[in-house]
Amino acid sequence: MIALPKSLAAPFSPPPTPGVLGVFGYLDTTLDAIKKLRAAGHTDFTVYSPIPRHEIEDALGQAVSPVRMFTLIGGIAGCSIGAWLTLWMSNDWPVVVGGKPVGSIPPYVVIMFEMTILFGALSTILGIVFNALFAKRREGSILYDPRFSNDRFGIFVPAGSDSAAKVESLLRESGADEVRRG
Amino acid sequence: MAEHAPATRVTYDYVTRTIARTLGGPTRGYFLLLAAAVALLSVGVVTLLFLLRYGLGLAGYSHPVYWAVYITCFVFWVGIAHSGTLISAILFLFRSGWRTAVYRTAEAMTVFAVMTAGLFPLIHIGRQWYFYWLIPYPNERGLWPNFKSPLIWDEFAIGTYFTVSTVFLIMGLIPDIAAVRDLATGWRKKLYAITSIGWTGANEQWRHYTRGYLYLAALATPLVLSVHSVVSWDFAMSIVPGWHATLFAPYFVAGAIYSGVGMVITLLVPIRKLFGLEEIITVHHFENLAKLCLLTGSIVSFSYMTENFVAWFSGNPAERAAFWYRAFGPYWWASWTMNICNGLLPWLLWSKTVRTNITALFVISIFVNIGMWFERYVIIVVSLAGEPYSPWANGVYNPTWADWGIMAGSFGWFFMWFLLFVKNFPAVSISEVKEVLPPPRKKASRMGAHA
């Protein structure tokens, strides 16, 4: 393994965030806990689930993901690049093919279309990776349980030692199978 | 989404473990299959070395047929790719729940089939080491590609299709790799920890992921329709009778999906058996695939009829001659193989007994593949051989060992990648199969799976 200098390694191994992790076996108890947490004024908690569920999204009241802007901008950029590529290159060395104008739009629409899709798709991926994996600084510093990718739901609530006990009892009341501190 | 009530035994945990089990220790049968694929591939590699040394003269090209088996295979493999995106993107937008069990296999097939297809134009160009001339880049000759040529459109279409279908496949894999990461041990755990790029299933990740996946599907849908349309324009933009038809784009797209669904069935039947996935990929899934096959097969048959009708009804002597040559000329056997496999065979699928009989479906799917290969052969080779504008220059083309060698190699190449994929990554989507199951609830719900 290559040892990174401390200053470079820091973003990859952030210090753990103190908090409470509840493991839930059922979807409805998880939703219950989310509602209770929100009612108690918590906003900064993380919900783990093996699959995306609309109920969880609705209970959290999340805003629509900004990934759509990435798709739109990528698509428009791709289309423009396609138009520029074909028109500029045709005019850079003008050759008349089949008696058609040097810059003929109809055949170039195909290239513009393909470039729209290509750039749209790639920037969508960039949007997902950027938003979901990199931009979320706290991921990786909070507790996780390998069962969350299988059949359990989980809620991690960041809490200092003063409020942890309260959160613990809230999670237990809502039906968590297991509660632990980290 | 909840089209069929799953057996109670099929829980989230069962799904994860059953699918993760497919990645376990490879059996002798697996290695035998892999060895067969590598052997076929080496036939192709040796043939390619001969082609590089002695040139395309080794293939059976003879005047006027200079597009032959390589281009046939190119269109064949691009066609195979299409049903993968149909199942993963178009059926995703249509919210059909049954796709979840089969889409990963279909999508992997897409990526590997496009990888295979992409090799053929490069082999076919002759001086393979100049393939990069296709790419528009500033060069010492100051030249740019001719963007009015459908061959350049094709390059853009196939390049985009390969890139987009690959990222779509990888995107879908990430949550599943995370699921197997959490079960794996040893070097595999390390591999999956890196390839799952920190996926935990946190709400913030799902929020962006589900949106992004939706947009990718929405972009892949028009893409899949465009790719085979562009491939068809490689032919339809020319004036060769038998090629020059406005019907070509929808006709090729339907044919592509027809052959692709055939290939999905051909691949899924042994996978299901080998990996014991009977409770996840059920007869219901096969029946739906068969229905897709029936639908697209009927469009293909209808296109055959339209083509022939228009050739006759147009009163154009060249068109009439081309289609007469096709059916009754020296290549009558190829035309009738195509007509029987693609025109008549799908009609068997009207019967539910056939649709739910997996052995019958497997056999039919192989004939679908044969029929669709011959369709491309007939369109490409036969239209050129019997070109009616210059009857004195007609000639008959016969494939040589160099044609068959490369074709065999392409099958080896495709199956090698596919076999390596199914043993190293989940061949069935873990998270999406769970999505169509009723979620675990403490209080009984009246609303079922989609509650």
Q: Can you give a write-up of this model?
A:
The complex is a heterodimer of chains A (182) and B (451). With 182 residues, chain A is α+β, with helices and mostly antiparallel strands. Chain A has two domains: 17-60 and 137-181, Alpha-Beta Plaits (2-Layer Sandwich); 67-134, no CATH class. Chain A has helices spanning 6-9, 27-39, 54-60, 67-92, 105-134, 164-174, and strands at residues 19-24, 46-48, 153-158, 178-181. The longest helix of chain A is centred in the middle third of the chain and has 30 residues, at 105-134. The mean pLDDT of chain A is 87. With 451 residues, chain B is an all-alpha fold. Chain B has one domain (12-128, 146-439). Helix content of chain B is 69%, strand content 0%. Chain B is globular, with a radius of gyration of 23 Å. At the A-B interface, α2, β2, α3, α4 and α5 of A face α1, α5, α7 and α15 of B.
Question: Topology, pairings included?
Answer:
The complex is a heterodimer of chains A (182) and B (451).
Chain A: H1 6-9, E1 19-24, H2 27-39, E2 46-48, H3 54-60, H4 67-92, H5 105-134, E3 153-158, H6 164-174, E4 178-181
Antiparallel strand pairs in A: 1-3, 1-4, 2-3
Helix pairs in contact in A: 2-3, 2-6, 4-5
Chain B: H1 12-21, H2 28-54, H3 69-93, H4 99-124, H5 150-181, H6 186-195, H7 203-236, H8 248-275, H9 283-313, H10 317-328, H11 332-344, H12 352-355, H13 358-385, H14 401-424, H15 430-435
Helix pairs in contact in B: 2-14, 3-4, 3-7, 3-8, 3-13, 4-5, 4-8, 4-14, 5-6, 5-7, 7-8, 8-9, 8-13, 9-11, 10-11, 11-13
